[in-house]
Design brief:
- With about 150 residues, the chain is α+β, with helices and mostly antiparallel strands.
- It has one domain.
- It is built from 4 helices and 4 strands.
- The strands form 2 sheets. It has a two-stranded antiparallel sheet. A two-stranded antiparallel sheet has the order 3-4.
- α1 runs antiparallel to α4.
- The protein is rod-shaped and about 95 Å long.
- The two termini are about 30 Å apart.
- About 10% of the residues are buried.
Length: about 150
């Protein structure tokens, strides 16, 4: 014969299983949103480099007129090498996840932060700041949807 205590323990176990499921689903949702935001940052960085404003010095190379980016503006694409090197990678251990966006080219950092001889031409920090503004709202909405799916 089941006792009140047995029924209570069974209910607690069912509740704990449901909480574990919600926790797993929230984690999956957070990883998915993090990956999507990394891709957006990558895409926006590429767009900024390819299409951003240019008010720097004009010059000619191989008979073609070009315009450099001015200090403070995103770098102007020249060969396309920087744009092709920008990646978004998500590292997921199952307990925590992080998305990295950037390039393995040294001159990507030189452009971003500047050097002793060149003022910065920020490209990644600009798009990161824009994405950061959206982060809380996106994560909140994703978590709300997960919890809503699990409510009775």
């Amino acid at each position: 014969m089941k006792t009140v205590q047995d029924n209570f323990l069974k209910s607690v176990n069912q509740l704990l299983k449901k909480v574990d499921k919600i926790e797993r689903d929230i984690y999956k949702s957070a990883v998915s949103e993090t990956q999507a935001m990394g891709e957006e940052i990558k895409d926006e960085s590429i767009k900024l480099i390819n299409e951003g404003p240019r008010t720097g010095r004009a010059y000619r190379r191989n008979g073609i007129s070009r315009r450099r980016s001015a200090p403070g503006e995103p770098p102007k694409t020249d060969t396309g090498r920087l744009v092709r090197s920008i990646r978004s990678i998500t590292l997921d251990s199952g307990k925590s996840a992080i998305t990295e966006v950037g390039t393995n080219l040294k001159y990507g950092a030189y452009l971003q932060y500047g050097t002793a001889k060149m003022r910065p031409r920020p490209w990644l920090s600009v798009t990161f700041r824009h994405a950061k503004k959206k982060t809380r709202a996106r994560m909140t909405e994703a978590f709300r949807k997960v919890i809503q799916r699990h409510t009775i």
